[in-house]
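Customer escalation, tier 2.

The customer says the design service returned an amino acid string that "doesn't look like it belongs to this structure." They asked us to rerun it and document both sides in this ticket. The original structure tokens are below, unchanged.
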């Protein structure tokens, strides 16, 4: 997944992430392309809030005819690096699950109790 830098008032793709904050029990929500950052202690409310904030931000840009550059902002490197790390972790998890499924299909065990047991696939 690549962070877009070609958003316009007519067509955009924005990325979000939420991760545990340094403050115990709190989370940080980020919208990468719009440089929006919000904190809260309720994960699900925070997700709603960052989505609504992004929607209002885009609406404002559209209604006021503001520059498309506002839809393609650069966040500090720490947020971009965290986003890339989360994407890599997700891809690694998906690959692990794929290989676990393959291994379960080609490696299995079967207990045989009788001397003349029939083995079926």
């Amino acid at each position: 997944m690549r962070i877009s830098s070609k958003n316009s008032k007519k067509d955009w793709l924005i990325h979000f992430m939420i991760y545990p904050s340094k403050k115990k029990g709190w989370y940080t929500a980020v919208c990468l392309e719009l440089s929006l950052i919000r904190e809260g202690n309720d994960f699900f409310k925070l997700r709603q809030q960052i989505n609504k904030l992004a929607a209002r931000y885009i609406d404002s840009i559209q209604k006021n005819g503001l520059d498309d550059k506002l839809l393609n902002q650069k966040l500090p490197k720490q947020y971009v690096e965290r986003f890339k790390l989360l994407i890599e972790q997700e891809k690694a998890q998906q690959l692990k699950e794929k290989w676990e499924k393959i291994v379960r299909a080609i490696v299995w065990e079967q207990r045989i109790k009788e001397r003349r047991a029939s083995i079926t696939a």
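Tier 2 assessment: The sequence is consistent with the input. Helices lie at 43-63, 77-106. Strands lie at 16-20, 27-31, 36-40. Sent an explanation to the customer and offered a walkthrough call.
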